[in-house]
Design brief:
With 152 residues, the chain is mainly beta. The protein has two domains: 51 residues, no CATH class; 77 residues, OB fold (Dihydrolipoamide Acetyltransferase, E2P) (Beta Barrel). It is 12% helix and 36% strand. It has a five-stranded antiparallel β-sheet, covered by helices on one side. The chain is globular, with a radius of gyration of 20 Å.
């Protein structure tokens, strides 16, 4: 039988790696243009070649006109927090060191919405309508990624 002090020692001796790599998003034929732009520290959104609708996340057909022709449109990378939540549990070990952290829906100036985490943001200081701007960071396991930072 294990005593309480033995169990405490065993638990304290167990350590997690300091940095756990975040899972890399899959790069597909549909998303390649987005990731190519990210490597150049630009934010680009899929644009329908038939009706000019901007859309994110990358999709094979335009939701408006159903065309399968598309290109990539550089966008400003500026917007505001449309909605957010605070995660108090990490869904993956790579996020454990950041708990609690903000997951936000960002509405870009161009009208497109993107979801991202705001790991460096103080959850108590985040508000709907706050202005944000894209920044690019090298993340363990993911490489260069677009991130958003509060600018006001």
């Amino acid at each position: 039988m294990t005593s309480k002090s033995d169990a405490t020692e065993t638990a304290s001796e167990q350590t997690l790696p300091e940095i756990v790599a975040r899972p890399a998003p899959p790069v597909t034929e549909l998303s390649q243009g987005f990731w190519d732009a990210v490597q150049n520290e630009q934010l680009a959104i899929q644009k329908c070649a038939a009706c000019d609708l901007l859309r994110h996340y990358p999709q094979p057909l335009c939701p408006s006109c159903h065309s399968n022709e598309f290109g990539w449109q550089p966008v400003s990378g500026r917007g505001e927090i449309y909605s957010y939540t605070v995660a108090h549990r990490a869904f993956h070990p790579a996020w454990q060191q950041h708990v609690p952290y903000v997951i936000a829906t960002i509405e870009l100036e161009e009208g497109i919405r993107m979801v991202c985490d705001l790991l460096e943001a103080d959850p108590d200081r985040i508000a709907i309508g706050q202005r944000v701007e894209v920044a690019f960071a090298e993340l363990p396991g993911q490489g260069r990624m677009p991130r958003f930072e509060v600018i006001d």
